[in-house]
Specification:
The chain is an alpha/beta fold. The chain folds into two domains: 146 residues, Rossmann fold, CATH 3.40.50.1360; 71 residues, 2-Layer Sandwich (Alpha-Beta Plaits), CATH 3.30.70. The protein contains six helices and 15 strands. The strands form three sheets. It has a seven-stranded mixed sheet with strand order 3-2-1-4-7-14-15. Strands 8-5-6-13 form a four-stranded mixed sheet, with no helix packed on it. It has a four-stranded antiparallel sheet with strand order 10-11-9-12, covered by helices on one side. The chain is globular. 47% of the residues are buried. The model has no long low-confidence stretch (mean pLDDT 97).
Length: 231
């Protein structure tokens, strides 16, 4: 296992300890969350932990069910805790860029519906300013998406349509396309970027997660854990 994977697993296992019996838990999407589901399934098996998971993607839903985790829709019950990865975590503010896994809309719905939102990531995801490492994903409805992309470009975003490895256009679980926008970096005023993008007809949501995370569990390649909080 690489140092990065060891770090992801360490962060996920630390977050899994936050879950207690009776909780409703939002389950994010991505490689770090896969380690989280494995850790939670082990606690279900070994400790008798009982909780309900709210998956943020079809991928997470299938993985949770495979591991014997009970799942439900997000509107069926209040969510006590959401745990998810991030593509960037801004040091000090805990503002995030998310969505490189393609589930940003559902991830944001679950995060905003949760009483607590905790991020898990390896140390390479920590940045000084949003946009330092990752482009900003913007989810767009398919109808007229090229016209929507031109509007995003007028804001300086330099949108690139996301494609699958084989070349086909990537389509989210919600049936939308995603444009990855590197042109906004460095994102020094993410609130204005968020506002201006949401004002464009056709934009469904952005990968900017602002002021939602309670804490971020960050792990180094040797498994050392650092829990970051805002401020």
């Amino acid at each position: 296992m690489s140092g990065t994977e060891r770090a992801k697993r360490a962060a996920a296992e630390a977050a899994a300890q936050l879950v207690t019996t009776g909780m409703v838990v939002g389950l994010g999407t991505g490689s770090t969350v896969r380690h989280l589901i494995t850790a939670l399934a082990r606690r279900v098996r070994d400790e008798g932990l009982r909780f309900v998971g709210i998956p943020t993607s079809a991928e997470t839903d299938a993985l949770a069910l495979t591991h014997g985790i009970t799942v439900a829709e997000p509107d069926s019950t209040p969510i006590d805790l959401a745990i998810d990865g991030a593509d960037e975590v801004e040091r000090g503010t805990l503002r995030l860029i998310k969505g490189l896994g393609g589930a940003l809309l559902r991830e944001k719905i679950v995060a905003e519906a949760s009483r607590r939102f905790v991020v898990i990531a390896d140390a390479s995801k920590v940045v000084t300013t949003l946009g330092d490492r990752a482009p900003l994903p913007v989810e767009v409805v398919r109808f007229g998406h090229a016209a929507t992309a031109r509007r995003i470009g007028e804001l300086g975003g330099r949108p690139v349509l996301r494609r699958e490895a084989g070349g086909a256009v990537f389509v989210s679980d919600g049936g939308n396309v995603i444009y990855d926008c590197a042109g906004f970096a460095p994102i020094r005023d993410p609130y204005t970027v968020q506002r201006d993008l949401r004002a464009i007809a056709g934009v469904v949501e952005t990968g900017l997660f602002l002021e939602r995370a309670e804490s971020a569990i960050i792990a180094a390649p040797d498994g050392t854990i650092d829990t970051m909080r805002r401020g």
